[in-house]
Write a structure and sequence with these properties.
CATH topology of the largest domain: Molybdenum Cofactor Biosythetic Enzyme, Chain A
Structural class: alpha+beta
Shape: elongated
Number of domains: 4
Distance between the termini: 43 Å
Radius of gyration: 29 Å
Helix content: 10-25%
Number of helices: 7
Number of strands: 27
CATH superfamily of the largest domain: MoaB/Mog-like domain
Strand content: 25-35%
Length: 368
């Protein structure tokens, strides 16, 4: 049997790893993309819109009128509408000298005569100029991650292109049997959801990927342990430098971080639960640095149904199922697939804590 080539000498605190990322991972160059493709992307520049709408417009179908002209209108005393009045559909510009929209049932048409049989308040059924967005108002700021809702707002404002930062991530499996593993697929999908582009490589050789890739960072999956087939840390040391091997997170302690050819290289374990924890706790922070994201979700608060224990110095990744404001911890040191299937999200226990008592308030990071 081949001797173990890799051993973890000590665990680097997660906070120190985050500091390394802050010092070494720099935001990538900006890129203009179509606003319609911007969901999940991080803005590189503030977005300020022109006044919208430019002119007052009808919010409902009906007749444009000057409210003062029909103030005394009723079915007993109809008032003939003036020349500026017009039958409008939602979205039509309001004619000059009109400030309200009479609903269709408040108007009677008799031949060529159009009569109001009810009054209407000024502004009723009208979106004033600038009612959607005031001129030069800042809608979004640099560092903000755009949601699908935000894309809808941008397209409604006829904003065609925006400036973003889109990190390019190369994902390589340490062994052929891991190349199509669930951990690899999860990281690729999450990269896309977080506004990055991911490329899965068929090669399992880190040097080959570094030679051929123009990626901003590389993620390697598997080969972080001390088994006979584990050699990812040695490969990173040969290609560049290992900043740390062994990180104070659970699961995922055998993860590693380094640099090669001017790029950050994150190596996560091949075991699915450990790979997911390492990616969510470290990989997402790497993406945030590369994309310039400052818009990090704090999570929603719930109370634990039972206590959670943790080891001082280790950041624990705990799956939970949320029900009516309460969070039930799932799994243990190993997180089975059934726990992932039944989970709403996860809780992170900081390294300075021995855990949480039952009834403690915790922040849940929900699955998107």
């Amino acid at each position: 049997m081949q001797d173990c080539k890799q051993t973890i000498k000590e665990l680097t605190p997660l906070a120190d790893v985050v500091t390394m990322l802050g010092e070494l991972a720099n935001p990538v160059a900006t890129r203009d993309i179509a606003a319609g493709d911007a969901a999940g992307k991080v803005l590189a520049m503030d977005i300020k819109a022109a006044s919208h709408p430019v002119r007052a417009m009808a919010l409902t179908d009906g007749w444009a009128v000057a409210a003062a002209d029909v103030a005394d209108a009723s079915s007993y005393a109809p008032i003939i509408l003036g020349q500026n009045s017009a039958c409008l559909e939602t979205g039509d510009d309001m004619p000059p000298d009109t400030d309200a929209v009479l609903p269709p049932d408040a108007v009677v048409v008799r031949g060529s005569s159009v009569e109001a049989i009810a009054s209407v308040a000024s502004g009723n059924g009208v979106l004033a100029a600038g009612g959607d967005v005031e001129a030069a108002k800042s809608l979004y700021v640099a560092g903000q991650r755009l949601r699908a809702l935000d894309v809808t707002v941008l397209t409604a404002l006829d904003i065609a292109n925006i400036s973003t930062r889109v990190p390019r991530i190369s994902i390589v499996a340490a062994r052929e049997d891991l190349r199509l593993a669930p951990a690899v697929q999860f990281i690729a999908r999450d990269c896309a959801a977080q506004g990055a582009t991911a490329r899965l490589w068929s090669s399992t050789n880190l040097e080959d990927v570094l030679d051929a890739s123009d990626a901003d960072a590389v993620v390697m999956v598997g080969g972080t342990g001390s088994g006979g087939r584990d050699g990812s840390i040695v490969a990173l040391a040969q290609a560049g430098s290992v900043l740390c091997h062994g990180i104070g997170i659970n699961p995922g302690q055998s993860a590693a971080l380094g640099t090669a050819r001017g790029r950050m290289v994150l190596i996560v374990p091949g075991r699915l639960d450990a790979a997911m924890a390492a990616w969510l706790l470290i990989g997402r922070r790497l993406l945030d640095r590369l994309s310039g994201c400052t818009d990090t979700a704090a999570g929603s608060h719930c109370r634990l149904t039972r206590k959670v224990t943790s080891t001082i110095g280790v950041c624990d990744f705990i799956l939970v199922r949320e029900t009516e404001g309460e969070a039930a911890p799932l799994g243990g040191r190993y997180l089975p697939l059934s726990a992932f299937a039944g989970s709403t999200g996860y809780v992170v226990v900081p390294p300075d804590s021995e855990g949480y008592a039952a009834g403690s308030g915790v922040a849940i990071h929900r699955w998107s």
